[in-house]
Design brief:
By secondary structure, the protein is an all-alpha fold. The chain has one helix and no strands.
């Protein structure tokens, strides 16, 4: 008895799906379209936020790199002046001595 009832249920369900599918599809289309539009808007917003975060990270990196280069240049500048101010020890002996 159970398989017969199951078969009748399948047939009834299939028949109602065939009969009511156009109405269901027609009513579901605007809902699906609205959901798709919301998903696209959210994806666009996520891309915009991601680009803003990436730009902020690039700016931070550039600032840090510039500061490191300034620190390196400042550390190298006193060494260069110390070398220029040091007396030369490799001078040839003078003829007047």
């Amino acid at each position: 008895m159970f398989p017969f009832g199951l078969a009748v249920g399948f047939v009834a369900g299939a028949a109602s799906a065939v009969l009511f599918a156009p109405q269901i599809a027609q009513q579901a289309r605007p809902v699906a379209k609205a959901a798709l539009k919301a998903a696209l808007a959210a994806m666009h917003e996520a891309q915009v936020r991601g680009a803003e975060v990436a730009e902020a990270a690039e700016d931070l990196y550039a600032e840090a790199k510039a500061e490191v280069n300034e620190d390196i240049a400042a550390a190298a500048a006193p060494e260069a002046s110390d070398v220029a101010a040091a007396p030369e020890t490799n001078q040839p002996p003078s003829a007047a001595a």
